[in-house]
Amino acid sequence: MATNPAYPQRILVTTPIYYVNDRPHLGHAYTTVAADFMTRAHRLLGHEVFFLTGTDEHGEKVAETARAKGKSPIEHCDEVVTGFKDAWKALHIDYDRFIRTTEEAHICGVTHLLKRLRQATGPDGQPVIYEGEYRGLYCTGCEKFLSGRDMEDGRCPVHPTRDPQEITERNYFFRLSAFLDQLQAKIERDEIHIRPKIRKREVLGLFAQGLDDFSLSREKVEWGIPLPFDPSQTAYVWVDALSNYITGVGFGTNGDSYNKWWNNSSVLHLMAKDILKFHTIFWPAMLLAAGEKTPEAMFIHGYLTLVDQKMSKSLGNVIKPDAWVADFGIDGARYLLTTIFRFGQDGEIREDTLREKYNADLANDFGNLVSRAAKMVLGHFDGYIPNPDFNRPEVQDLRSVMINEELNFIDAVDEVDPNMAVASAMSIVRAANRYFDHMQPWNLAKQGRLGDLAVVLGDTMEAIFYASKYLSPVLPTKIPEVLRTLGYTDAEIDARLRKGQTIAAPAGRQITKAAPFFPRVDKLGGKVEPEKKEEPKMDGVITIDEFFAAKLKTAEVIAAEKVEKADKLLKLQIRLGEEIRQIVAGIAEFYQPADLVGRTIIVVTNLQPAKIRGIESNGMLLAARHGNTLRLLTTDGEIPSGAEIG
Ligand SMILES: [Zn+2]
């Protein structure tokens, strides 16, 4: 990425502010998850980041929609904004500021900018703003003036079902023509670095075609920011919206913040290709005219498409991000959004490939590796992670992958390539799987070669730790869980992932459990869970939902026997209503098999099946323990087996 040479390690990351005509869809989520990825990745590398997103709330169409709903524009905006904020919360988006263009600070900043432009003259010595008449077509869908070049068959290509509006009005114009040479040179020299290259060529192509001055204001649009020098006009909604990138960090209201996050940082704008012209041409030209710094980098991504059309409500094919979260979890949805296409290219969504990718990458490659290795550390080393030894010849492949992919990750972040960054982390995961399978630690265990087993598990755990770091920007809820499992404290996890500080390798830490992190997804339901309100939680207190996550039932013991060569274990056959199951329980020191048959016990029925000493155990019985005494939990009086508890 082109960075501000004076401040390469301080980044302002932005998404476009989303227009409040619609509920958030997957297209919005795609940009926002990418911006969140970039934010987290830079923080992981120790950089300072400010992540700005928000909503664009002015304009004719917003007022129209509000009217149709019988609401005031601001009531309508308040409602839609909640939808966006909830969507970002559901995807674990960690923005620093959510700006709304109806906010006082923004209006103040835009007013300041307009006054500045009104007084400014261009390189040609002429005033930047002049009055004129606009006569032509306008798409209210895009809030865009349409020139012949913008249209297909006389219509807006994004809104083919709408008739463009014919308008004639007195406007204030921005003298874009005066800044074109300067702007073109900046883009050619990558001072405004436009990625991918194909988009840079497209922008330079626009210069070659010729660019007209643009209207800075609208005459008959009331829902907007009045021009300070002519309150009968409001700022054109794009001028209003683009300004959020500077007002959001304090332009016109907080000089210190503005100086830090705009002037003394590297600015990265992310967006979809439909708004390229506004961002790469109008916006930097406005900044040049106002005497402000231009953004260092812009990354333009493609469309996610479904039946060949851009995802937008106007075309009636909205995919909601919460359906993905319901199917794949927060991290699964983020992973798929980030990796399903090269960021920058267009891609078509096919749901079966999503499930395959999730299962292959997260359930199998990563999730399984972590639980297999963790289980062996628990089973053979009391949970203590053994020391690695990266000097042995058999581990050299894994070691070099770890070193190289770390560098590749840094390059990918620099290139604004979330896809490649995740691929680097996944290469470490795959190399660790190859190593694990090649070394066959289960055979080492069988042969009693505990020293060799320790080294293999130590190496694998260290590789998991490496991969986890670089997966954390895309898996922000699961990776902390994995690291907690490896014995890291929340403070250490925060220091590593959010502040880029070094923390010690996992060897010597104690693993306490090996729960599966990414359960397989076998069918897609699109089941959307009801929204949960988050309430402040006390330490050690669980919610009723968390309690009922464990399904407890009564069971009748129908057979019991000792397990050979395991003094503490009994193998029980139990009846749960219609169902017969086998469980293995560590109660042989306290109960004789014969005493148990016919007893009613309490069983957790929805535990992941496990093998204990090679014997399948499908559930867990409950017992109370005090010192050397253990007593089974049972019911007060008779009740059939399979009765639910709770
Ligand atoms: Zn349009």
What does this structure look like?
This protein is of the alpha/beta class and 646 residues long. The strands form 7 sheets. Strands 1, 2, 3, 4, 8, 13 and 14 form a 7-stranded parallel beta sheet that branches. Helix 13 (396-414) runs parallel beside helix 16. It starts with 9 loop residues before the first strand and ends with a strand. Mean pLDDT is 90; it is low at 307-317 and 527-537. The site of zinc ion (ZN) has 6 residues, from loops.
Salient structural properties:
3 domains; binds zinc ion; 646 residues; Rossmann fold; 7-stranded parallel sheet; 6-stranded antiparallel sheet; single chain; Isoleucyl-tRNA Synthetase, Domain 1; 20 helices; OB fold (Dihydrolipoamide Acetyltransferase, E2P); alpha/beta
